[in-house]
Amino acid sequence: MRNIILVFALFSCTLLHAEDKSSLELIEIPVTANPLNLSSDELANPVRIFNGTELQNRKNSSLGAVLDGVPGITNNSWGDSVGQPVIRGMDSNRIKILNNGMEIKDVSNMSGDHAVAIDTLSAEQIEVIRGPASIIYGGGAVGGIINIIDHRIHSEYIDGVLGKYDQSFGGANNESSTAFSVDYGHNDNLMFHLDGYQRNSKNLSIPGFSVSKRLVESDSEFTRDKYGKDTLQSSDNESGGGSLGVSHFFDDGYTGLAFSGHRVDYGNPLEAGGKFDLNTNKYDYVLEKNKISTLISKMKFKLGYSDYDHKELEPDGAVGAEYIDKGTDGKLEFVHSFFNKSPGVFGVDFGKSNFSKSQGDPLIANNQRNNFSFYLLEDYFVGKHKVSIGYRHDFNRYRSNDFTSDDGCSVAYTSTSSCTNESGTELSTTFGKTNKAFNSNNLSLGTVSELNKQWKLSLNVSHNERAPAHNELYSYGHHHATETIEQGSRDLKKERSNTIDAQFKWSNQRAIFSLSPYYTDFPSYIGLLNSGTTQNHLHEGEEDSEELAVYKTSNIPAKFYGFEVQGDLSLSNNYGLNIWGDFVRAKNKDGGNLPRIPPVRLGTGLSYERNTFSGSLDLMHVFNQTNIGPYELKTDDYTNMKLTMNYKLPMNNNINLYLKGDNLLDQEKRDHTSFLKDKVLMGGRSLMLGVAGDF
User: Are 494 and 476 in contact (CB under 8 A)?
Assistant: First the structure.
């Protein structure tokens, strides 16, 4: 209670010493992922945009942590260094993560311990997209699209030099981070871009024992402090990278080239001294031509090549596993007005990738992936109503190499006794070369209607199909990082779903309120589920084998349903109040709940802005999760209190000092969506100080 009083006292004192302020001015924010150049209100389902101070206030060590707390979005964390976003209970291959409109190539969809191959320190803007507009960025993205914008290739010319910087210290992981970007416009037709960033953090401070009571009570192998007490072992992080780009502008268009590199070394909390070493390099080319004809207003061509390498290191530095993914992706897109001068877009995507796992226990067959897609999105306006129709056809082909797995043993054994028919059966499975091809179709229909001056209704209906990912098809064996046996299936059928979602939005000059219910039915859902069986595996250098759960990938019928609610109220010229909440349930229609589904959340916040000072105090209560899947443990509730303050120096408004506080109540926080939620505790009470500016 004393800590709460201190926080409120600090917040109140700062307000009293701030200067008077004139009325606030709202600025329309462009949605760069939308090729039709419509505002967020004109999309068939709202687009959430983060940039400027709001994005700075959300800065965190992973993409999932940056977006956690947005209505409908939670974090699938692997300690502090890794976090993947979960949208409406859906993760992995049901979410597309883009960088400047092109999908990021990495292996983050294969497992929760694999980081997304980008750091948001260099981001200018992050967009969350749902509805018909998302269909042009990939099929089967039932959860939605996340697009990270960094402007390394400029689409508009700006004369002279401009730049920005950000430096911060603190947090539960004692982090220090630096980021900068510089852009230079020359001779009315050239733009140069340079950016760089670096992040270093220590082991995470946690409020107590890393392992939950429930796990200790259910499994005698674990002790409360197995992975740390007050400090989480092997949770440090060191990352860095940057990009260089150049754009050339000509009459009615531009072209540009860019190179970017990203590296990160982060610890494995489940293995003291264990490390992950991720490196990726990317090359991008863009050509855009405007005013092509009276019917085609824009043509854009994008081409990218990625070289990704991910090593998992043992405490002695030996490479325990290595994942390599190299590939090329392209997009050709046209914006047109063929039908009654209404805007539309059509285009094609294509790509080729080569994946290999060159070291470590056999887990997945090396494979090659080819894809080709064409899509269109058409908008029609009838009075105050807008109708959007989207269609996408995807063709995916997979070719895998010969593969022999290392599945484990049916009984416990030691290094001095072999696992034979007398004591059990040493399991391995041999697969020959396989070719798999999938054709999938995605169709969406959305409407936006202004019912009156206060009410607006958005309604979307969609049919989505997704080809199985290569890890769902070809994984088969011991996954060391997650301590599981994973068994994919070459017999998987494509995933199919039908979704209806709506938004009821009410607004006046002082308040905005929205309610967004949704329902998704999966006649065929691709799930990685605990089978209830186990196999034993002996790690190199150990005496006794370890019993591991067997997870199998299969097609099942499922359904997801829920809603998000959000309200923003202007209390005065200086004060604002917001409330929000979300709810999602997911069920296996053959019986039971699906695992790792987010619990109910409810949040509220009080904001204040006066002259060059702004601040907010936010509370989010995460309820306990008792609607659990088979072999899953319940997760306790917690309340997270956050504080943000920003103060622009009066003598130079381009310099901003900021303070961020997280988990100010120092509560035990566990992400129910994480495989590690009972083994790893999230960070305790923390403060971070920083300075940011532009020139």
Answer: no
Contact present, 75 and 62 (Cβ < 8 Å): yes
More confident residue, 234 or 39: 234
100 and 285 in contact (C-beta within 8 Å)? no
Establish if 59 belongs to a structural domain.
Answer: no
DSSP string, 506-521: EE-SSEEEEEEEEEEE
* DSSP conformational letter for 593: B
Helices (H) and strands (E) in the chain, counts: 5, 37
In a domain, 598, yes or no: yes
Enclosing domain of residue 24:
2-32+160-694
How far apart CA 136 and CA 390 sit, in angstroms, is 8
Percentage of residues in the chain having pLDDT higher than 70:
92
Average pLDDT for 507-526: 96
d(Cα 224, Cα 215) in Å, to the nearest integer? 9
Among 64-73, 128-137, 498-507, where is mean pLDDT lowest? 128-137
Q: Which of 189, 192, 267 is nearest to 234 (CA)?
A: 267
Please state the length of the chain: 695
Greatest alpha-carbon pair distance for the chain in Å reads 83
Of 280, 331, 334, the closest CA to residue 303 belongs to: 331
Given a contact cutoff of 8 angstroms between Cβ atoms, the answer to whether 29 and 41 are in contact is: no
Of 600, 612, 693, 614, the residue nearest 659 (C-alpha): 614
- Sequence-ordered list of residues with C-beta below 8 angstroms from that of 587, at least 6 positions apart, any chain: 558, 559, 593, 594
Token output for 506: 């009410």
Out of 17-21, 457-461, 500-504, least confident range? 17-21
* Nearest-5° Cα angle at 236, 231 to 241: 160
Mark 286-312 as b/e (b = at least 16 C-beta within 10 Å): bebbeeeeeebbbbbebbbebebbbbb
Q: Which residues contact 355 (CB under 8 A, 6 or more apart)?
A: 107, 323, 324, 325, 364, 366, 367, 368, 369, 470
Residue 605 falls within a domain, yes or no? Answer: yes
Tell me the percentage of the chain whose pLDDT exceeds 90.
Answer: 73
Which residue(s) pair with 289 in the sheet? 253, 299
* CATH number for the domain harbouring residue 503: 2.40.170.20
Q: Which candidate, 137, 127, 105, 98, places its Cα nearest to that of 470?
A: 105
pLDDT digits (tens, 9 = 90+) for 662-677: 999 999 999 999 989 9
The rounded mean pLDDT for the chain is: 90
Cα 652 to Cα 649, 656, 694, distances in angstroms: 5, 9, 10
Tens-digit pLDDT profile for residues 59-68: 999 999 999 9
Strand-pair partners of 168: 177, 690
Report the SS3 class of residue 321: strand
Q: Give the number of other Cβ atoms within 10 Å of residue 19's Cβ.
A: 9
Q: Is residue 191 part of a domain?
A: yes
Predicted confidence (pLDDT) at residue 6 exceeds the cutoff of 60? no
Q: How many structural domains compose the chain?
A: 1
What pairing do the DSSP bridges indicate for beta strands 275-290 and 296-313?
Answer: antiparallel
* Token pair 């700075």: residue: 56
Q: Tell me what pLDDT residue 12 has.
A: 44
Cα separations in angstroms, 441 against 35, 106, 384, 392, 446 = 21, 25, 30, 6, 17
